[in-house]
């Protein structure tokens, strides 16, 4: 009995020694365990996952290959190297097709650009590129971000919660704001998510559910989520409902836009309020694409645009205001700059909603000042770097014969 206990203790000590020795030679990178892969590193760093990813990328010189639990057959390649990103997404995109598995995971995007490869991808990319570079897109984007959603959504909501002393979820507020903006850019219609009382909008809820399902399909083994889909349970049940809701919403917007086209109301490119992705597809998309656009292609790209605008910008805004709240001195400087740019008397509301030309002029002055300061700082850093290299190359001691 004593021998058995001693044997177990020795075996445990050797295991711990080998484990610690392996960690010391792993340079702080996650260890690929048998069976469970790198799951422990994710579990123990879940509260600081973004920081851990940054640390891993720094230690691995910008590119790292992660492995999940063995039965999931999941491998993830993380890279922050701009050269790798450009090579994969631009120069040699044909060598990295998304494949059928990716199309099933991102089923909600349908036949849009995000789910296509090869020639189909090139044709859709040409069409999307033409839309993003259209002068109407830039004009409507400025108007939508600048006034429309601020006057009708954000400012009234903030005034209301301030007067009623209501605590709000800032991330939810920004998600609603950017969802309204994304839908206006994509379809030309405002779903009115950011309104007093924070109304429940099925379209928004369905998009959020679709995001959860895509993440779930990435993490879970394919056999499990396929079984859930067949049984109609778990996250796959959410996906079924979300898919139907999104399809119904986009079908409604498509029908409304086609009805406007048949009446000939506000569909000329010169109309400031009439330009959006859906209108662009119906008026110019088929010509650029090379053949008639199907409803599925249009819907897929509309969903892709909404995802791209809403999620990225809302998260960035949330982090920005969180950082500002942690740095009162920065908040004070921002307030002073706004007051200097848009002066108002004491007790008077901020005069941001002036005419467009005046507002653009004032904002450009603010941006030009920051750009000039940024360029000065960059030039100063370059000069310091060059001086540092020069001084290191000059001998510190001179031999005298």
TrEMBL record:
Alphabetical keyword list: Iron, Membrane, Metal-binding, Oxidoreductase, Transmembrane, Transmembrane helix
TM helices/strands, residue ranges: 7-25, 31-49, 302-324
InterPro entries from the UniProt entry: Cyt_P450 (IPR001128), Cyt_P450_sf (IPR036396)
Required cofactor names: heme
Keyword Membrane in annotation: yes
Single annotated GO MF: heme binding
Family membership noted in the UniProt record: Belongs to the cytochrome P450 family.
Protein name: Cytochrome P450
Upper classification of the organism: Eukaryota, Viridiplantae, Streptophyta, Embryophyta, Tracheophyta
């Amino acid at each position: 009995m004593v021998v058995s206990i001693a044997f177990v203790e020795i075996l445990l000590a050797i295991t711990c020694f080998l484990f610690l020795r392996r960690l010391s030679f792993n340079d702080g990178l996650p260890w690929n365990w048998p069976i469970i892969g790198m799951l422990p590193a994710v579990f123990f760093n879940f509260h600081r996952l973004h920081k851990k990813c940054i640390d891993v990328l720094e230690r691995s010189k910008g590119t790292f290959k992660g492995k999940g639990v063995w039965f999931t057959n999941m491998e993830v390649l993380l890279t922050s190297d701009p050269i790798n990103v450009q090579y994969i997404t631009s120069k040699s995109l044909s060598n990295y097709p998304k494949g059928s598995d990716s199309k099933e995971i991102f089923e909600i995007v349908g036949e849009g650009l995000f789910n296509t490869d090869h020639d189909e991808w090139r044709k859709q990319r040409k069409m999307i590129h033409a839309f993003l570079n259209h002068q109407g897109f830039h004009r409507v984007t400025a108007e939508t971000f600048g006034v429309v959603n601020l006057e009708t959504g954000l400012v009234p909501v903030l005034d209301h919660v301030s007067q009623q002393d209501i605590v709000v979820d800032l991330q939810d507020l920004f998600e609603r704001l950017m969802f309204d903006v994304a839908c206006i850019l994509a379809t030309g219609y405002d779903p009115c998510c950011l309104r007093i009382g924070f109304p429940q909008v099925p379209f928004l809820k369905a998009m959020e559910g679709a995001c959860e399902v895509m993440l779930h399909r990435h993490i879970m083994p394919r056999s499990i989520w396929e079984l859930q889909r067949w049984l109609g349970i778990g996250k796959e049940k959410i996906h079924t409902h979300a898919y139907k809701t999104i399809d119904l919403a986009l079908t409604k917007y498509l029908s409304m836009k086609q009805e406007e086209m048949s009446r000939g109301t506000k569909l000329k490119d010169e109309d400031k309020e009439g330009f959006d992705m859906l209108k662009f597809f119906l008026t110019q998309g088929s010509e650029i694409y090379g053949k008639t656009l199907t409803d599925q292609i249009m819907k897929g790209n509309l969903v892709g645009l909404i995802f791209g605008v809403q999620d990225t910008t809302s998260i960035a805004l949330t982090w920005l205001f969180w950082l500002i709240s942690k740095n009162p001195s920065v908040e004070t400087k921002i307030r002073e700059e706004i007051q200097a740019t848009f002066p108002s008397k004491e007790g008077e509301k901020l005069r941001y909603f002036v005419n467009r030309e005046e507002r653009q002029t004032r904002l450009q002055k603010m941006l030009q000042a920051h750009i000039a300061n940024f360029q000065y700082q960059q030039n100063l850093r370059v000069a310091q770097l060059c001086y540092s290299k020069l001084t290191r190359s000059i001998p510190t001691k001179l031999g005298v014969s």
